[in-house]
Write a structure and sequence with these properties.
The protein is mostly helical. It contains seven helices and two strands; from the N terminus they run αααααββαα. The chain starts with 5 loop residues before the first helix and ends with a helix.
């Protein structure tokens, strides 16, 4: 059996990479078909998806090490992402598509389907793109029915705080029950505290006589 020449194998792989790079840049039909195949494989093959993600992280790390200004450009992009509504919608849509592929959920959103309102429709908080990623005022995309995926008509943009509160519950009856319980217990605690203060005040008055 003839021994395979490592140099020839390496050169062949390089030619294939160059061919794919040229096709991706110049052939829209090939690029769309390849992207569709990649999305399907990402959804069905977790090991392959993790391998591709790890390779991308290594490549990004090498690029950042070789180009000190690259990290600055990435940070600037993140600042723009946090401050520009149009860019936020675009990048958030891409992120949700990848999440849907990973979880096997339906997805058909475009950036126009997730407009950011001025106020949170749940809590009335002002939605702000600046600040910390976990800020209560940060906009987030919420699914009305989680199992239906990120599709038109099933998503709303609400505050991070509101999304956190309803993360584990979508049944309005359960949410109302929790709200009634908190209100009832707070009223009871307030009444108990008032009674205690009255008792303490009465004892102080008796001691002063």
């Amino acid at each position: 059996m003839a021994t395979k020449d490592p140099e020839k194998i390496k050169a062949k792989k390089q030619r294939e990479l160059e061919r794919r790079k040229w096709l991706r840049a110049n052939d829209a039909d090939w690029r769309d078909a390849q992207n569709a195949r990649d999305r399907t494989r990402r959804a069905s093959d977790p090991k392959w998806r993790d391998m591709i993600n790890a390779r991308a992280r290594r490549r990004d790390k090498e690029r950042a090490s070789a180009d000190p200004t690259l990290r600055q450009r990435w940070n600037e992009r993140q600042r723009r992402y946090r401050s520009e509504v149009t860019l936020w919608c675009k990048l958030r849509c891409s992120s949700l598509r990848r999440k849907s592929e990973r979880l096997g959920l339906p997805f058909d959103l475009t950036p126009a389907d997730i407009p950011v309102p001025a106020l949170c429709p749940v809590l009335g908080l002002e939605l702000r793109l600046d600040g910390d990623m976990n800020s209560p005022n940060r906009p987030t995309v919420d699914r009305l029915l989680p199992e239906s995926g990120y599709v038109r008509g099933n998503v709303r943009v609400i505050s991070h705080r509101a999304n956190t509160l309803k993360r584990d519950c979508i049944d309005p009856k359960e949410l109302r029950a929790v709200a009634d319980y908190i209100e009832r217990e707070l009223e009871g605690a307030t009444a108990s505290a008032e009674d205690m203060f009255k008792q303490v005040g009465g004892q102080d008055a008796d001691n002063g006589r």
